[in-house]
Amino acid sequence: MSLDINAIRNKLAKLQGKSTGTSYWRPTENTETNVRILSFKTDDGLPFKEFYFYYNIGKNRGILAPHQFGKKDPFQELINQLRSDGSSESKDLLKKLYPKMRIYAPVLVRGEEEKGVQIWGFGKTVYQELYTLLADEDVGDFTDPFSGRDITVSSSKAAGRQWATTSVRPRMKTSKLSDNDAQMKQWMDAIPDPDNLFELQSYEELSKIINDWLNGEDNESEGTSRNFGGNTTSTNTDDSGKAYKSLDDAFANLT
């Protein structure tokens, strides 16, 4: 019997006391999965939610950037100081400090409907592909629960490459999210508030993390918690020193 990595990831979150019942999904390498991508209930009229994280800071797997919410941010303060300095050393440090974007969407994974609405985190390439489809008149609003369409998510890992590549394409036929209206309503009502997906650490906590990092001290924090939390295209490490391209990759290594 093969292990369900998503189930293990959610179990770990519960053991760590970080879960709010939200399940996170990621494509399995070298497979195709049909999903129904839904829309977050937000005021901006956009279906997905962007978050920015700091990576490669000590042993932290990913740190939610307070600056994006208009809050005091010791990382941003250091970035501003380094910009003013302008030295080559400052420029090298800046490359490590700039936050990276990761995007999230609620999805119903076909074949895993019993798990309900899950959250899928992806990068800029997939993000652009999805918006290109939304803007295509022949595709339209694939997130519509009544007249949308499923999306096929392909994950492939070429020989010699360290990381898999993810792509998306629309199914030709439009369909309802479910033929059972009561079930469809239950799923739609279960879409979480995206602002509750991650915990924002305090200014004091983040100041200690960055000062420890600058002083060469290892910090044991796991960074921003998912409610269950975390994530992008930067390299991250776990306690064994193994490198990860994303926080999702780090959480996937639970053996």
Number of beta strands? 10
> What fraction of residues sit in β-strands?
15-25%
Biggest sheet descriptor: 8 strands, mixed
Q: What is the molecular shape?
A: elongated
How many separate structural domains?
A: 1
The second-level CATH architecture is: Alpha-Beta Complex
The CATH class is Alpha Beta
What proportion of the residues is helical, as a percent range? 25-40%
User: Multimeric state of these chains?
Assistant: single chain
* Poorly predicted tracts of residues: 14-20, 228-255
- The CATH H-level superfamily is Replication Fork Single-Stranded Dna Binding Protein
Short structural description:
The chain is α+β, with helices and mostly antiparallel strands and 255 residues long. Helix content is 28%, strand content 19%.
Structural summary, described in words:
With 255 residues, the chain is α+β, with helices and mostly antiparallel strands. It has a single domain, classed as Replication Fork Single-Stranded DNA Binding Protein (Alpha-Beta Complex). The protein is built from seven helices and ten strands. It has helices spanning 5-15, 74-85, 88-97, 124-135, 181-189, 203-214, 247-252, and strands at 23-25, 31-37, 49-54, 63-64, 100-109, 118-122, 151-156, 165-170, 236-237, 243-244. The strands form two sheets. Strands 1, 2, 3, 4, 5, 6, 7 and 8 form an eight-stranded mixed β-sheet that branches. The longest helix has 12 residues, at 74-85. It is elongated, with a radius of gyration of 19 Å. Mean pLDDT is 83; it is low at 14-20 and 228-255.
